[in-house]
Amino acid sequence: MVLRRVRQDEEEEEEEDEDEEDLVDPRDEVVEKCEEHCTAVKAELEACTDRVNSRPGTEETCEQELFDFLHCVDHCVSISEID
């Protein structure tokens, strides 16, 4: 009896896990679209990243470029309508 109950509990947990996998965060789609909208800022970030990676011992961090990109995406997401 106890073993049967444990198996039932395991099966129920597996079903719950399967249901949870189907959930999709609608914000993720909006973020992707906003990243496409912010291509100019993203290009600046990528150029900076390439520049930093090509120079050993540089003190440049691309922090400002990253902040600019994140700000652009966040602003776009904030004005988008999420259904």
Total count of helical runs of at least 4 residues = 4
pLDDT averaged residue by residue: 85
Strand content range: under 5%
Total of domains: 1
As a percent range, the share of helical residues equals over 70%
CATH class: Mainly Alpha
Question: What is the CATH topology?
Answer: Helix Hairpins
The assigned structural class equals mainly alpha
**What is the radius of gyration computed over CA atoms, rounded to a whole number of angstroms?**
22 Å
Order of helices and strands: HHHH
Can you identify the CATH superfamily?
Answer: Ubiquinol-cytochrome C reductase hinge domain
Envelope shape: elongated
Q: Characterize the largest beta sheet: strand count, sense, and whether it forms a barrel.
A: none
Low-confidence runs of at least 5 consecutive residues: none
Would you report the number of β strands?
Answer: 0
How far the N terminus sits from the C terminus, by CA atoms, comes to: 47 Å
The CATH architecture is Orthogonal Bundle
Keywords: Disulfide bond, Electron transport, Membrane, Mitochondrion, Mitochondrion inner membrane, Respiratory chain, Transport
Biased composition (Acidic residues): 9-23
Membrane topology: Peripheral membrane protein
InterPro entries: Cyt_b-c1_6, Ubol_cytC_Rdtase_hinge_dom, Ubol_cytC_Rdtase_hinge_dom_sf
